[in-house]
Amino acid sequence: MDIRALDISLPIREALSEILVEVVAGGGSVSFMHPLAIDAAARFWNQSLAAAERGERIVLGLFENEVLAGTVTVLLDCPPNQPHRAEIAKLMVRPSHRGRGYARALLIEAQARAVANDRTLLVLDTATDGGAMGLYESLGFVPAGIIPDYALKPHGGFTGTMIYWKKLGV
Ligand SMILES: CC(C)(COP(=O)(O)OP(=O)(O)OC[C@H]1O[C@@H](n2cnc3c(N)ncnc32)[C@H](O)[C@@H]1OP(=O)(O)O)[C@@H](O)C(=O)NCCC(=O)NCCS
């Protein structure tokens, strides 16, 4: 298994788009509704990887035998008064590759990348119906609070969101 920053090449965009469609179909709360068209997923990743090329974010990929098994994004493009902050987004592992510690490994690498970019505060939000809260808390993220009915789940119905923060390098 290895983790690296992803480029904007066609095979990478196709693999990321497949993962996003699969994760949304499986009920993952990652901003989209089911069914997600592969073209819409590709548009999202095109924009995200273009932002990565501009240095505004880092899109990490975890590969198993050169197959993309998971991804997480570190958002670095914060307002001028928050140069010390980064945000974690779009943590996803292919359903076929779950339960192997890959999400944990992606988050640990994401934290290292944030530190390497001189960030001392990480924030993220996650669906309260999702099941990822225990993972973030086991990595030291502190729950700030729940916003009820924040988003729709991919198959309908509201879910709340939990906001987390973590100080880095302290
Ligand atoms: C959440 C997700 C990324 C976890 O991926 P994963 O690779 O299976 O997670 P890991 O194997 O690294 O598990 C890490 C820990 O979290 C726990 N965990 C992971 N998913 C869990 C779930 N759905 N319910 C309860 N616990 C879960 C594991 O038990 C494990 O704990 P342990 O280390 O103490 O054994 C994956 O289920 C996913 O892609 N979900 C859909 C998208 C999503 O919800 N992303 C989070 C949005 S913020």
Structural write-up:
This protein has 170 residues and is α+β, with helices and mostly antiparallel strands. It has a single domain (2-120), classed as 3-Layer(aba) Sandwich (Aminopeptidase), CATH 3.40.630.30. It has 4 helices and 7 strands; from the N terminus they run βααβββαβαββ. The chain has helices at 10-25, 38-53, 102-116, 133-138, and strands at 2-5, 57-64, 67-75, 85-93, 121-127, 142-152, 158-167. Strands 1-2-3-4-5-7-6 form a 7-stranded mixed beta sheet, sandwiched between helices. Strand 2 (57-64) and strand 3 form a beta hairpin. Helix 1 packs across helix 2. It starts with a strand and ends with a strand. The relative contact order is 0.16. The model has no long low-confidence stretch (mean pLDDT 97). The chain binds coenzyme A. Coenzyme A binds next to strand 4, helix 3 and helix 4. Coenzyme A (COA) binds next to strand 4, helix 3 and helix 4.
Short description:
This protein has 170 residues and is α+β, with helices and mostly antiparallel strands.
Q: Overall pLDDT, averaged?
A: 97
Mind describing the biggest β-sheet? Answer: 7 strands, mixed
Determine the CATH topology. Aminopeptidase
Helix content: 25-40%
Reading off the top of the CATH hierarchy, the class is best stated as: Alpha Beta
| Secondary-structure element pattern, one letter each | EHHEEEHEHEE
β content, as a range?
Answer: 25-35%
Oligomer: single chain
User: How would you write the strand order of the largest sheet?
Assistant: 1-2-3-4-5-7-6
User: Radius of gyration in whole Å, from Cα?
Assistant: 15 Å
| CATH architecture designation | 3-Layer(aba) Sandwich
Low-confidence stretches: none
Could you tell me the number of beta strands? Answer: 7
Query: What are the distinct ligands in this entry?
Result: coenzyme A
Treating each run of at least 4 consecutive H or I residues as one helix, how many helices?
Answer: 4
What's the overall geometry?
globular
CATH homology superfamily = Gcn5-related N-acetyltransferase (GNAT)
Alpha carbon gap, first and last residue: 29 Å
Broad structural category: alpha+beta
How many structural domains?
A: 1
